[in-house]
Amino acid sequence: MREPQAAGPLAGITVLDLSRVLAGPWCSQVLGDLGADVIKVEQPGQGDDTRKWGPPFLDDGSRDAAYYLCANRNKRSVAIDMAKPEGADLIRRFAARADVVIENFRVGGLARYGLDFDSLRAIKPDLVYCSITGFGQTGPLRDTGGYDFLIQGMSGLMSVTGLPDGEPGGGPMKVGLPVCDLQTGLYAAISILAALHHRHATGEGQHIDLALLDTQVALLANQASNWLNGGVTPRRMGNLHPTVVPYQDFACADGDVLVAIGNDRQFRQFMDLLGLGALADDPRFAISSGRCLNRDALMDVMRPVIARWQAADLIAAMQAAGLPGGKVNEIPEVLAHPQIEARGLVHEMARSDGTPVKVLGFPAQLSATPATYRHAPPRSGEDTVAVLGERLGLDRNEIDRLLAAGVIAERL
What we know:
Blueprint: E1 14-17, H1 23-33, E2 37-42, H2 66-69, E3 75-80, H3 85-96, E4 100-103, H4 117-123, E5 128-133, H5 148-154, H6 179-202, E6 206-211, H7 212-218, H8 221-230, E7 247-251, E8 256-260, H9 264-274, H10 288-293, H11 295-306, H12 311-320, E9 325-326, H13 331-335, H14 338-343, E10 346-350, E11 356-360, H15 384-392, H16 396-404, E12 408-409
Parallel strand pairs: 1-2, 1-4, 2-3, 4-5, 5-6
Antiparallel strand pairs: 3-12, 7-8, 8-9, 10-11
């Protein structure tokens, strides 16, 4: 099956994806959404690790996990054993015709197969080659494997996530999503786009060295700046904000409400809404820094007043006043929310056998070159024969020989 006619800003770009699990596949999915032809290389008989990361599993005979489905649309899967010399040679031939290679093997792991940056640059000088690892290609931890949970802890993220020490349930807490992997995938896509622009201007390819730890440390953002520029060590504060008050959850009579008051004008409006207008003139609370320093005193007044409201009534009153407030939605609620429906974020695709798969779409709405949804997440190796014929010109006899030798495989 030939690649359907792609549209989008990356139409005509070929990505050879040697990555698995999440950071690399998330990156290549972004590129695929924007029109790139992504060829996903998987180990015969094994496939991407996340295919087994269930339950839940897709009930279509493949037993692919829902986890795998979230990060692998707009790709074609070929199963090639790179440990066999002929398999590594096939991948080199793909790379010679590709614009981008993405890999997340351990440092130096691909050199033994002649698939490292230096080897592939020798045959494709303008290649953009992106290596994603836990700790990067240099430094004392370069040979250490990196996993999202480990990186959340090592990066300091867990030191500012969770309830404070001493409170019931207090202690370090990971984020409920693999944010280090996801964010690294996004930075990888950004970096690849920058490298492609550089190549367009100069004809020069390059190596992108991207680490999960580096990415998450860079995303400490305001918390890191509080230490670097203010000498303040950030701590776990639960749902409180370190410098913006009130920016937290409050208990109403029948449930919790989220309040995100971001400036002094909004604070005055919110106090008026609560019947506490005098607090906006109190020198302890009138400006943001004062509210931060006198947080406990302010909460002593606000909490009992908010506790008398019904949650839905307070949210409605805040929305009518143009103030940011809302509730904590569960996943089924948010995916059925009218706003998400209006934005068209949930898409239904069909696998090659007709099995429906629902995916969350590309969130940016480009007016001239919108994201497209051409391939549902493929079964492992289902495109091997078609892509080898289309991209490398192999005939059926040669493909059959490679299948018999175990160099390649068809669909699991």
